[in-house]
Amino acid sequence: MPAVSMTVNGKAVTGDVEARTLLVQFLREHLRLTGTHVGCDTSQCGACVVHVDGIAAKSCTLLALQCEGAKVTTIEGLAEPNGPLHPMQEAFRENHGLQCGYCTPGMIMSALDIVRRHGNELDEHTIREQLDGNICRCTGYHNIVKAIAAGAKNMPKASTRQAAE
Amino acid sequence: MSATGIGAAVRRKEDFRFITGSGQYTDDVVRPGETRAVFVRSPHAHAKIRSIDVGAARKMPGVVDVLTGAQLATDKIGNLICGWMIHSKDGTPMKMASHPALAAAKVNCVGDAVAVVIAETYEQGRDAAEKVKVDYEVLAAVVDPAKAQAPGVPQIHPDIANNTIYQWHLGDAKATAAAFAAAAHVTKLDIVNNRLVPNAMEPRAALAEYDAGTDNLTLWNTSQNPHVARLVIAAFVGMAPEHKLRVIAPDVGGGFGSKIFIYPEEVVCLWAARKLRRPVKWTADRSESFLTDAHGRDHVTHAELALDAQGKILALRAKTIANLGAYMSTFSSSVPTYLYATLLSGQYDIPSIYCEVDAVYTNTAPVDAYRGAGRPEATFVVERLMEVSARQMKIEPADLRKRNFIKTFPHQTPVIMAYDAGDYHASLKKALEIADVKGFNKRRRDSARHGKLRGLGFSTYIEACGIAPSQAVGSLGCGVGLWESAEVRVNPTGSVEVLTGTHAHGQGHETTFAQLVSERLGIPFENVSIVHGDTDKVQFGMGTYGSRSGAVGMSAIVKALDKIEAKAKKVAAHMLEAAEGDIEFKDGKFTVAGTDKSATWGDVALNAYIAHKFTGAELEPGLKETSFYDPTNFTFPAGCHICEVEVDIDTGKTDIVNWTAVDDFGAIINPMIVEGQVHGGIAQGVGQALLEGAVYDKSGQLVTGSMMDYTMPRAHDLPSFHVGLTETKAPSNPLGVKGCGEAGAIAAPAAVINAITDAIGTEDLAMPATANAVWSALKRATPRQAA
Fold first, then answer.
1. What is the CATH number assigned to the segment(s) B299-467+633-780?
2. How many contacts does A have with B, using Cβ atoms within 8 A?
3. Which of B331, B431, B527, B717 could cross-link to B640 by cystine, CB 3.0-4.6 Å?
4. Model ipTM value
């Protein structure tokens, strides 16, 4: 089996994977980072969203081997253990932006990417349109939209975001 | 009101683990030596199995074993069952076909499992499953429920004539017919309540482990009711005695009804784990969820409403064909009967109602309870009839409703239910204000100027929740009691664990229940833990569905807390050397009436355990109490939802431009969580009305078998919601709560369709009202001139 190396949540990791092993399987089954979820197998639901080299990606649609040398951030890597929560995590809790919690890691990771692309001041329309790749069955999105707007406001202002567009 | 007590919008205890990725769902649990189960499923909707050849599959790398239905039968593993008996009009019992966990002789729907590969890894299992050779003799399939009973249609189960499960009825046929004969106006509607796929975001999963040393089986399972799962798997499937089977439902990623039921996969995993002496895990991929999770709704109905010339309702009648799919799922029989026809009175004083329901088998996935379960179907019938009647009789829709609202309580309907409290005028009035219905005509004119059609739709719904009392449901055929249990354990340091038989899979019980305990005992919210979802910890419970956890589950906690307080007062009396009757308990402090002598909650808890102040003859040490609570009635949440839409004439696309929901849920413990439940329910109801629909082709293939084909509501399909509350307390439980989990899904579809049909000026519109469906309806009808 081929070996793969990448940096996950700031830590160098390696593993032997089958060529067909998906990034999400590598994260969940090899690294036991089970915060990243699988919800649909067809790249529709976004429960598996992580950041690969700073950009949101559906980890069910990437082979682990494609991420050779990449820097991957998962929901587990957003806040230091015992440190404060990331403002977006805090906003989801404060605004009741989750119920069963299954879609939540993907929602938060996608939300951060929306901030990266559209800045800290997000209107409702932008959030709803940009959330197209993430499905939640519990909340009706009402409080997720509120959470993302609030979390974006509370995040430090990034300078690079528009450049990525 | 304290910051964490009853009525406070307390932020949820459970959120930390979910927002940090440390939740523990079934697929996240890993046991040493774990294997993976991959099911071989029928690609045909209806076929005989001539033979199954597992030889090649067995030789594949990593394969531990390949098991078939024949072996399941040899090992005497029993069938899955439906636990609610319905009798037909003629008194005969419903016809329950046998449902083995692995089909041995015949498959009855696409996705029916015929074999299972147990392999070291998931990939190896999948590779091997492709090598299992099944020789099928394909039979013609029955797909359309409306045609399932016709002569000459293929028969699905050998001894069940005309694919008919039961022909049931409720109400007074004669009185209803007489009322119709005397009516000034009769409204008639043909309604298809579209089949839905629940699609909880966490796919179903099961992990089974066998301990040969103790002969104990453990099942981690995506279940809304682990004790019921254990009971059925022990007592009916015969897998193991109840005391040798532990079922754990850890974090569960949404249920919406679909995780109530006992499915083949958990049975097979348990069987295989014991047979192979290895833990066995199965996690559905989404395609399997689409094919094998119990679907919802799927009714074909003809409904009629009789009114006098002033718009007073005289009678309602309905004839429904309910599609229950290939097998009877766990509670499937109750959904189109006692959860449906009993709600056909809506919020209205209707003298006579008669409803007939035929339940039929088809070669499709089983259909069972999905958020609302019968009540959305009933509400859709009643609220569509009301809206269409109002239009035909040229009465304002709100006015027609007001003329017929039930005004005094208790109110006995002609269909079993005795409504105990409500104020339907209050919720309608508040909703009319919030929705600015007065300003609608101006908004309609503005839309017309932009080439858009604007419409307004009402849904004044009612539901029966709590799903209890046990005696009542027993008299209607339910095989179990629907009480709930609670055990309150006070630790020597004064912290509290509450063990509940309910199960949370998004509802936030860890928070809401802790608020109740914190307020009642006057102890910090942080000092309360809620324990659920493990049959080794919680003695028994009926689980969570039917919006019952508040009304029944929390009431059980109240009763147990009553007992805790009584016992703690005895301990305090010994400590304070006073008569028990003189002890008062308030805000976490015990005092002797009329004195300054007191003891704190923590002191009393400690003394209950160290037992230094009383003898064993006087009082048992310890502080732990249990309650099994059975309410005296269902609860009847009700309210008014108003949907305002704008329809694009050129494309037929509907935008929901305003949503108002005013609900009466009785007393509210945590308004933030209640509002969240309303939002989610509306989204699922809007999904049914605008987007979702499970489609089978004529051969029984599920055309909408993935999230690329089945339209799940996304953020841009929905507006933000305006949510309001009114309150009449439920008299049937000590807290006065009614339940809020399903209201949105019950109210929403009728509100949406009433709004769109108002906009486009034709009633000829089926769900889901996709852009294509609306555009086609517009083309069929002569569009009404916008005002």
1. 3.30.365.10
2. 179
3. B431
4. 0.96
